[in-house]
Amino acid sequence: MKILLLNGVNMNMLGKRDPSLYGSDTLATLEQKVQQFAQTLGAEVVCAQSNIEGELVNILQQTDCDAVVLNAGAYSHYSYALRDCIECIGIPVVEVHMSNIYARETFRHTDVLADVCVANFVGRGIQGYFDAVEFLVNNHTTL
To answer: Which of 13, 81, 90, 118 has the fewest C-beta atoms under 10 angstroms from its C-beta?
Structure first.
């Protein structure tokens, strides 16, 4: 199984941005840890990141992966373009948020991507990525 790990806006700032919410790992370290975890499950993970909404849409539309783990960052709260893309690409997408968006500012409680994703892992830090990969590997034949 080949999984796209796609991180969105500001995720390139991991390790610098509020470590109490996001931890001290950089994006490169997070990607490496997720790739290593996926290998133990017999899966391959390819990684991408963009701060630009349209580039995220392009990456999703052009992927040759079997499934996606997506942390869209703030785009989760208002990007109907990403929502529509997920709805039409025909592959399962699992959404991840490192922090608990439902326990933060009110504007973060809206998640326009949630209902078009096959699962959501919220507020578990890097563990949410591992949970998402494991979910996809364990359920790939039924999704």
So the answer is: 90
What's at 140, amino acid-wise?
Answer: H
- For the chain, report the end-to-end CA distance as a whole number of angstroms: 13
pTM: 0.93
DSSP summary character for residue 133: H
Would you say 77 and 110 are in contact if contact means Cβ atoms under 8 Å apart? yes
pLDDT tens-digit readout, 41-83? 999 999 999 999 999 999 999 999 999 999 999 999 999 999 9
CATH of domain 2-139: 3.40.50.9100
Domain boundaries in the chain? 2-139
> Whose CA is closest to 118, among 95, 88, 84?
95
Measured CA to CA, the distance from residue 46 to residue 34 in angstroms comes to: 10
Rounded CA separation 114/80 (Å): 11
